[in-house]
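call fold(seq) -> tokens
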Amino acid sequence: MSDSMIEQSAARLFSENVDKGLLEKFETGVFPDEFWQLAVDSGFPLALASEDAGGIGESWAAAYPILRGIGYWQVPLPLAETMIGAQLLSMAGIDVPEGPIAIVEQGLDNSLTESGSGTSLRLSGKAPRVAWARHCRWAVVSLGAGGIALVDIAGNESARIVERTNHAKIPADALSFDDVRAVAQAANPLPQLDRPLWTLGALARSAMIVGALEWVLEQSVQYANDRVQFGKPIGKNQALQQQLALLAGDVAAARMATLVAMNDAPSPGSTDCSSTVFSAAVAKIRSGEAATRATSIAHQVHGAIGFTYEHMLNFGTRRLWAWREEFGSDSWWAERLGRAAITGRSAAFWKGLTQRRFEAGIRTA
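ret:
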């Protein structure tokens, strides 16, 4: 599937099926099953999975319109997580199951422990914030020892889910394992990434943030042009114009950082991850910083009406607040990027920037 076909398909599917009514219904707890099936029929959940596993085998750069579209149209589906889980499973030689897939990185924001190996692998502990867990039968767990495991979380009495949500009222459930046996286990197919789900999750969130940022910018500019006060549009105010210009600059910078990271991400056709962590860190830092300033500016432009549930703006800004924290906040990634730069010292600094990797590596432990 060509890049233009993916972009056109994503725009058509999302624009025709997502509206305020769907989002409001979703926030009452109703999962849009028909919408999910349409996404499945379009091949989006398996866009990054290998062709041998029944996927499309696309690169992250080619799949960018899907991830960006999730943010732009506020798509209430676990598409990003399923895309990542399916990619790792297919590259590891594990059959990709049908349906939505949750993803969990062991040890960073949870207390999961492992014992045994292979089909005797068992997991115990708690993962407090697992996106979409209640709507997924399966979870892919990236193990601290360097492997990945597929776990049945819906049909297993030893796996318990406590329903929670993030700022955007999107499921971010607490998942508990009590000696849960894995359905399958394999070595990490991307050994250059010691935290594959965390790193790729951060990259996906960056693309989703970019889409939401673009939507928020468009809404703010439109409102500034339409809202008349004292006989003229408020967009004629120079101070407000300056704030919108800052917002536009943040959107452009976040987009460029994320597009670079997309080209550095692994795919079934290229497992080179030498620059993936560096570029994902930069993208998550830049998109997270942009999200913070964008939400502030957008709500200043809209005034009190933008905070009301009846206005669409809050659906975008609440997602920005949620996504900037998931899979590592901008400050979390900045600390690790900074440590790698300091470890390399001045002699390795410029080389690290131009090659998009530091000799010491970026430790995500």
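The mean pLDDT is 93.
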